[in-house]
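Write out the 3D structure for:
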Amino acid sequence: MKIITLLIISFLFIGSYSFSQVYTNKIVGAKNQALKDSIEKTEYPYLLPIWGKQAAKKGYKLPYSAGIGMNYLWQKSDLVIDNLQVGFNGGEMYSLDEIIRFNSAVSETNAMNIRPDFWLFPFLNVYGIIAFAKTSTAIDAGVR
């Protein structure tokens, strides 16, 4: 149930990644004069970044002051184990194909990371990464 909940939350945020690159941008040029004037006259509504109001008054278009990103990964892989050889202390390698058989081997991974961030200054973004992963491998082996 926990994994299904994480999947649903992840799918809700998929659309937010289409415009995930943000930066502080100085509006310049005659064709952008109306945009620059509107940015300079509009009151900057956020507490962060520090000096954000002053930067907006000078014509900089600032990104949102804070955000969060989330990624989820699930992978299941069938493994092929063949040509098994064993050697000791750098010595000769011995094939174990005639002794051990591998019927199946499956590896599965669930991983998630969350990246909260905020703009401390108009030129400095601070963020952290919180992540977890759970992996498992199941091997069905026997003696010939």
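The chain has a mean pLDDT of 82.
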